[in-house]
Amino acid sequence: MVGVPEVQDPTLASAALRRYVASTPPELLDPAAIAFFGALDAVGAALPDIASSIAAELGDQRSNIKLIASENYSSLAVQLAQGTLLTDKYAEGVPGHRFYAGCDNVDAIERRAADLARKVFGADHAYVQPHSGADANLVAFLAVLSQTVEAPTLARLGHTNLAELPEPAWEALRREIVGQRLLGMDLYSGGHLTHGYRHNVSARLFEAHSYTVDRETGFLDFDTIVRQARALRPRILMAGYSAYPRRIDFARFRELADEIGAAFVVDMAHFAGLVAGKVFTGVHDPVPHAHIVTTTTHKTLRGPRGGMVLCSSEYADAIDKGCPLVLGGPLPHAIAAKAVALHEAGLPDFGRYAHAVVDNARELADRLRGHGGRVVTGGTENHLVLLDVATSYGLTGRQAESALRSCGLTLNRNALAFDPNGPWYASGLRLGTAAVTTLGMGAAEMHEIAGIIHDVLTPAQPVDGSRARFDLPDSAVAAARARVAVLLDRHPLYPEIDLGLLAPGVAG
Ligand SMILES: Cc1ncc(COP(=O)(O)O)c(C=O)c1O
């Protein structure tokens, strides 16, 4: 191909693939493993260090237990759908109405992904273009503003095209658009920064207000939210979280939104898989209750990194204008991978998986409490657990996070509501069970993981009043690492891939 450099080292190209094919009986050859080795060979022949980092990441994820609540392990089919020539396509617009020629195949892919999303979630409409959860929220916000603020003003002024509005009228409208109120869950109570955190564009676009959890119980107090919402009368009432271990009654939120004339937007980025898998049903399923539901596709839903918006028919046209409202061209390769993931999420196995995720989180919370740990709200009803390590072990979240990582457990520190340690050092850990459940772990493994966590955090000691440094005896590290290795050996990640087959330069 013109302008594409020659392969740097032709002996590297397809070395792993050839070794795999030579060492595997033909009837056992796995198409995903062939594709993985072929991809690494091809990337490694062009840029060995990138191939090597990809392989090293698989090694890392195989030797550490992943308890990051916002991550998962997507299927190799999902990953491979992304690694295709679809990345080369521009397709601004929506299926059947593009600003580029040659989009027939992208149309088919986007239609399929949207159909699957509608089916899995029982939604009137799905828009699968957002590149991320943050983008999906911006699309939702701007669609509400365009439908409820911009459109009535244009109609009043007798215009149909914003671009043709005279300058003074546009400036007045622009000020009206950015003067609207948003009420969402406070970041430090478990909300997300895109829900009105001052350092995020959401707080610059809106007059943003937030509700918190109750200081004593850690639960959302709906009566307080009602009082706040009645007083503020926001344009958008928002629910959804990144670090709240309980279910939410979305029917009550919708009633409140209707009473105050707000659009009700739910960000289900964290628990989309629990909705797809029918763990959250009735009043806990946001889709029948919210005007608009936004999500990521890569957390409990177990798809590729990306975002998505579901909405009732009344918002469909406004949401479909995500480009040009927020986005440029869609990512057709990511949309193809979303289609594969949504297909997987519609299978009966996924329902069993989603229920097991929540069972595992409950077991983990119970076991941590059994060891004397303080778990925020006393337990969990979803995929995540918040452990107060300051109260339980005299550590900051940062110290606990680093201590556990040194022992083979990957998770993240998390500020607790009203946290005196702030978000950087924090007083809590956020643990999630989506990834370990994908590996097939169950109650016995949760029991063991809780024991490892307790046996690491108990001997860990802060050093010299530092909120980052800590001491942890080598013996505790070695013992924990050995226990982690036993769990991971029994539950290997992508067992069809033997990293030993990679060329030395690629395997690192
Ligand atoms: C509730 C919630 N919304 C939105 C996002 C943003 O998603 P992304 O990182 O894909 O932009 C996250 C990510 O953690 C989240 O937890």
From TrEMBL:
Keywords: Amino-acid biosynthesis, Cytoplasm, Methyltransferase, One-carbon metabolism, Pyridoxal phosphate, Transferase. One of its GO terms (molecular function) is pyridoxal phosphate binding. Pathway: Amino-acid biosynthesis; glycine biosynthesis; glycine from L-serine: step 1/1; One-carbon metabolism; tetrahydrofolate interconversion. InterPro entries: PyrdxlP-dep_Trfase, PyrdxlP-dep_Trfase_major, PyrdxlP-dep_Trfase_small, Ser_HO-MeTrfase, Ser_HO-MeTrfase-like, Ser_HO-MeTrfase_PLP_BS, SHMT-like_dom. The record marks H298 as: Plays an important role in substrate specificity. It catalyses: (6R)-5,10-methylene-5,6,7,8-tetrahydrofolate + glycine + H2O = (6S)-5,6,7,8-tetrahydrofolate + L-serine. It holds the Pfam family SHMT. GO terms for biological process: glycine biosynthetic process from serine; methylation; tetrahydrofolate interconversion. The modification N6-(pyridoxal phosphate)lysine is found at K299. (6S)-5,6,7,8-tetrahydrofolate binds at L187, G191, H192, L193, E314. Its cofactor is pyridoxal 5'-phosphate. GO terms for cellular component: cytosol. It is found in: Cytoplasm. Its EC number is 2.1.2.1. Catalyzes the reversible interconversion of serine and glycine with tetrahydrofolate (THF) serving as the one-carbon carrier. This reaction serves as the major source of one-carbon groups required for the biosynthesis of purines, thymidylate, methionine, and other important biomolecules. Also exhibits THF-independent aldolase activity toward beta-hydroxyamino acids, producing glycine and aldehydes, via a retro-aldol mechanism. Belongs to the SHMT family. Homodimer. This is Serine hydroxymethyltransferase.
